Prior knowledge:
Chain A is mostly helical. Chain A is built from 5 helices and 3 strands.
Amino acid sequence: MTSIHERADMTSPQPIVAKQLLLPRDTATDAAARVAARVVDAFRSSETVTVDFQGLRGVASSYFNTLFRTVGEAIGCKRMQEGLSLRYESDAQRAIGDRSWTAVLAMLENPDPGHEVA
Amino acid sequence: MQRDQNLLIRVAFNLDDRWSDLELFLERAATIVTPTNHASWTLDLRDCAYLGPDAAVLIAGLFDRDRQRGLVPRVVLPEGPEPLRAFCSYVGLAHRIGQGPRPTPDHPRSETVPLHTYYQPIANAERKVVRLVHEHFPGVTEGAELALGVAINEVIQNVCDHAESPIGALMAARYFQTRRDVRVAILDLGLGIPRTLARVLPAANDPQQALRLVVQGGVSSRSKASNMGLGVSNLVAQVRGRRGELLLLSARGVARMTPDGVVRYDSAPVDFPGTAVFFRMAVDDVDT
């Protein structure tokens, strides 16, 4: 049994601010892997986790691909879809993220699609 | 062609950032563009009165590659007009070919991001271009910054993931104050999109078809676990959203997008050894 206080902590963690985990000479995938590790760790004690992408203005698809794939492989697609909340800086950034999200989910649910490698 | 021979390529026309000029250059320089050339060469640009960033990365890329191959490439830069001499200096072309000092991008009048080679896909490769634009146009919109960032990072990530380019990803950029647009040129001399994609998708052996597939998105050679086949289509979407222009050259294929967002596919005059991505986009509000 968990206490009311512990339950509250499990559903309202502090957002993970992705920009704070970006180091000066990082590759996009290194930076994303660092965020993913935090997310996976946060899911150990929370049912929902929020990632805030404010300030990450120019990151490309590999960043989101790595983040979503790493988290999805670690906790499963269902839990990621239900518990991972994403706070984008703009609609344009959301469009990039959404495309990666869709592609990663499709890949995780069908990892060997033959020549249809999307 | 033997190693001790020296080819002379004379370019007596302007090389603006448009396909008609670049096509003419590729035709003229076809012998040295191909990696099967084993002769040293001299590229004589003395009668050329204009060079843009697209030409700068092409020339610097060929120079770097053939110097690595043990050839003796030589570039004779134009002696005038003065703006062209300044561009060759600011963009780092003169320094690259051993004919000038290291460029000074912090110079207040510089409208150029000098040639830079990326061997790693750093997460904020757009930083220098965004800074340049900010210096000249503080009113640059967040949307333009994002579009620039995504476009540049998608290309450099693709080069580093797939291309196996001996010269890495070579980038240069120039800001045009009167038009409030920025031109970005990124070049690799690696495998090229059709050859990379054909590893998993035989239909991609056709260069124009390969370009169609990557522009459309959703196909990838999966060189890395992070590849989902979205890079080029994201690039296209960002440039299209800024009503920009894009040129994508790889192997015998070329894709050109005009400001109306329409992409046309054509054949290139040479089997280009790698991929060139040249784009321009407005940095002010595209709706006004």
